Structure formats: structure tokens, C-alpha cells
Amino acid sequence: MFKKSDFFFLLAVMISFFVSGYLWFNGQRMEGIFTAIWVPSILGFGIYFKLMVLGAKDDG
């Protein structure tokens, strides 16, 4: 069900989430907000690529 690429996307999301929380709570609020924006972007790219792979299997 999960591929290695899925784990890399989830790892990138978790790292981004924790770095943004770290920055936010250490007083660097603008940097924390900027890093927090990465989370939905990475998830969106992961979903897009997963759908592209699934669509390629159906065509094939």
C-alpha cells in the first residue's frame, strides 16, 4: 500500500511541521509561518504524484 516515495513525502511533511513549530515558539514567527506553508504544498505534490502513478497504471 505504501511505497518508499510515500514515506519520503510524509517525512518531508513531518520535518517541515516540526521546524515551523520550533521557529514559531522560539520567536521567529514569520519564518515559522513561511515554513508552515510548506506542509500543504508538500502534501499536495505527494497526492498529485500518487494520482499520476495510479492513472498511469489504469491506462496501461
- Main sheet properties: none
Taking the alpha carbons of the first and last residues, their distance comes to 19 Å
Structural class: mainly alpha
Low-confidence stretches: none
In percent terms, what proportion of residues is strand? under 5%
Number of helices: 3
Helix content: over 70%
Mean pLDDT: 92
Number of strands: 0
What best-fitting shape do the alpha-carbon axes yield?
elongated
How many structural units, i.e. domains? 1
One letter per element, helices H and strands E, the order comes to: HHH
Question: What is the alpha-carbon Rg in Å?
Answer: 15 Å
Tell me what you see in this structure.
The chain is mainly alpha-helical and 60 residues long. It has one domain. 87% of the residues lie in helices and 0% in strands. The chain has 3 helices and no strands. It has helices spanning 4-25, 29-36, 38-59.
